């Protein structure tokens, strides 16, 4: 007699589910690209006092023609794209003349990402991306679905994962706005200002406006050059830091508004966040191979850290960096708690095996060769060619950069460490960004041993663990060359044994 499961499967095979269409508002989403050219046209009109040139009218006509073409293409794409979820797969059909059918078995789907930009949210739709254990090649994207449909579809796609016991409290973390104090301790304090200035320059240059010829820009440079540099330079730096701090806070709020990290069910970990652009990333527990505790230099000085997931199915390297973040800049104690919750076991942050002193010497030499020497030589050469003032700048730079470089080298060496804690490989390295990795040992698929003439002379080797998750490979730099093979064998038995075994004796 047939079981109920067999009866349901037979019914599904006899009567496959119908194909479903994307939401018609997909057409409006595809027209969002017009905002940039229309905005440039408006800026040109403002900059020229409302006088629209012949070239601008040609641009406007080109935009209108492009709008018609894109709308027609979008209509055809919408009409010829549909999807369905069968009892064992997600199927997507697309194409006009050449029909294409892509299918992913449901048991291979590991992550489901729901992303909605401001335009998507205004239209009430979202983008769903379903990923397998591989990279972006095993990903299907549906743009766009209603938010309710996407949420139901996500639950349906992840319903085939293996179930395990639930935690007592499924919520691992929620946004706490006291964490805003860590926002200025990120790259965006300085880098964000220059990135925004570069984007503004490219925009103005693209619409025919030369920023250096604007009146207020010329006046600012004139006043800056006429002022006392010992006052104006610090004032400009303070202004950049203040502007960057404000921008970092705004980005933090926009990116992490309504942030929740939770076990949405016993088998899936979900991150929800975003104000203008919302994002919901779901990772199957079986594909969560570890976590990475990241502490950039400024954030570490302020006692903060971030947490990233090491998981398969998050897309290519760029997509992985966007989707793998589990915790924004927050107190380090909170980061350790979240990392432990994601691992379902205490994060192994204890003692690690130190690295040989040769690793310290390498870092000291690199600090002197790559930081102190080039800057000093450049300033000295310019001073000899143009003005003696730069000669004084050269020795001042050498005097200041030498102890700073040696301190950074010492800090980088202190941060080195590796070890094995239960079922996890532990590795720590870095100074500008100190990263502590807890990786499941069974996730290591292969080892790469890397040396150079300098490291061989120092008796050092760099190990790279190849993993089908996260960044695909994680480095453990400058281990003792004699003990590295034994350590690699202890982490992942069965990979190196045939290379470590002594050769059999030759017959007489």
Question: What's the helix and strand layout?
Answer:
Layout: H1 4-14, E1 20-21, H2 26-30, H3 35-47, H4 54-79, E2 82-85, E3 89-94, E4 100-105, E5 111-116, H5 118-123, E6 125-131, E7 139-146, H6 147-157, E8 171-174, H7 191-206, H8 215-226, H9 229-256, E9 260-265, E10 268-273, E11 278-284, E12 288-296, H10 297-301, E13 304-311, H11 317-323, E14 325-331, H12 332-343, H13 357-385, H14 388-415, E15 417-421, E16 424-429, E17 433-440, E18 444-450, H15 453-458, E19 460-467, E20 473-480, H16 484-491, H17 497-500
Antiparallel strand pairs: 1-2, 2-3, 3-4, 5-6, 5-11, 6-7, 8-9, 9-10, 10-11, 12-13, 12-17, 13-14, 15-16, 16-17, 18-19, 19-20
Explain what this protein looks like in three dimensions.
It is a single chain. By secondary structure, the protein is an alpha+beta fold. It has helices at 4-14, 26-30, 35-47, 54-79, 118-123, 147-157, 191-206, 215-226, 229-256, 297-301, 317-323, 332-343, 357-385, 388-415, 453-458, 484-491, 497-500, and strands spanning 20-21, 82-85, 89-94, 100-105, 111-116, 125-131, 139-146, 171-174, 260-265, 268-273, 278-284, 288-296, 304-311, 325-331, 417-421, 424-429, 433-440, 444-450, 460-467, 473-480. Among the domains are: 101-168 and 261-344, no CATH class; 180-256, no CATH class; 357-414. The chain is built from 17 helices and 20 strands. The strands form four sheets. Strands 7-6-5-11-10-9-8 form a seven-stranded antiparallel β-sheet. Strands 14-13-12-17-16-15 form a six-stranded antiparallel β-sheet, sandwiched between helices. Strands 1-2-3-4 form a four-stranded antiparallel β-sheet. Helix 3 runs antiparallel to helix 4 (54-79) and helix 13 (357-385) runs antiparallel to helix 14. It is globular and about 75 Å long. It starts with a helix and ends in an 8-residue tail after the last helix.
């Amino acid at each position: 007699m047939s079981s109920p499961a067999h009866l349901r499967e037979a019914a599904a095979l006899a009567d496959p589910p119908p194909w479903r269409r994307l939401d018609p508002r997909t057409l409006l989403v595809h027209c969002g690209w017009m905002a940039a050219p229309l905005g440039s046209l408006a800026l040109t009109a403002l900059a020229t006092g409302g006088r629209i040139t012949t070239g601008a009218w040609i641009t406007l006509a080109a935009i209108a023609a492009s709008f018609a073409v894109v709308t027609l293409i979008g209509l055809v794409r919408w009409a010829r794209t549909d999807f369905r979820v069968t009892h064992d797969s997600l199927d997507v059909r697309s194409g006009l003349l050449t029909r294409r059918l892509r299918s992913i078995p449901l048991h291979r789907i590991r992550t489901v990402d729901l992303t909605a930009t401001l335009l998507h949210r205004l239209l009430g739709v979202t983008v769903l991306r379903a990923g397998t254990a591989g990279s972006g090649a095993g990903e299907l994207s549906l743009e766009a679905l209603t938010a309710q449909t996407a949420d139901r579809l996500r639950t349906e796609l992840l319903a085939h994962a293996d179930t395990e016991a639930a935690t007592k409290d499924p919520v691992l973390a929620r946004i706490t706005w006291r964490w805003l104090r860590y926002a200025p301790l990120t790259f965006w304090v300085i880098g964000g200002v220059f990135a925004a200035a570069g984007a503004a320059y490219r925009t103005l240059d693209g619409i025919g406006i030369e920023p250096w010829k604007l009146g207020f820009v010329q006046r600012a440079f004139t006043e800056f050059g006429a002022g006392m540099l010992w006052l104006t330079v610090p004032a400009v730096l303070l202004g950049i830091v203040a502007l960057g701090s404000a921008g970092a806070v705004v980005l933090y709020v926009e990116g992490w508004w309504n942030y929740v990290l939770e076990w949405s069910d016993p088998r899936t970990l979900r991150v929800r966040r975003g104000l203008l652009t919302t994002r919901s990333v779901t990772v199957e527990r079986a594909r969560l191979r570890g976590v990475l505790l990241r502490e950039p230099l400024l954030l570490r000085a302020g006692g903060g850290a971030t947490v990233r997931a090491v998981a398969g199915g998050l897309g290519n390297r760029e997509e992985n960096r966007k989707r793998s973040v589990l915790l924004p800049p927050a107190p380090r104690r909170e980061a350790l708690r979240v990392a432990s919750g994601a691992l379902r076991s205490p994060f192994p942050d204890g003692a690690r095996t130190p690295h040989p002193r040769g690793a310290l010497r390498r870092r000291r030499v690199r600090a002197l060769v790559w930081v102190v020497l080039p800057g000093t030589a450049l300033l000295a050469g310019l001073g000899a060619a143009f003005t003696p003032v730069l000669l004084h700048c050269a020795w001042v730079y050498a005097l200041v950069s030498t102890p700073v470089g040696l301190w950074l080298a010492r800090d980088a060496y202190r941060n080195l460490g590796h070890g094995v804690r239960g079922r996890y490989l532990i590795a720590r390295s870095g100074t500008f960004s100190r990263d502590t990795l807890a990786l499941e040992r069974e996730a290591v698929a292969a080892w790469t041993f890397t040396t150079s003439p300098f490291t061989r002379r120092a008796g050092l080797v760099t190990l790279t663990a190849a993993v089908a998750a996260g960044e695909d490979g994680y480095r453990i730099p400058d281990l003792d060359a004699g003990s590295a093979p034994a350590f690699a064998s202890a982490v992942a038995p069965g990979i190196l044994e045939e290379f470590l075994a002594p050769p059999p004796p030759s017959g007489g």
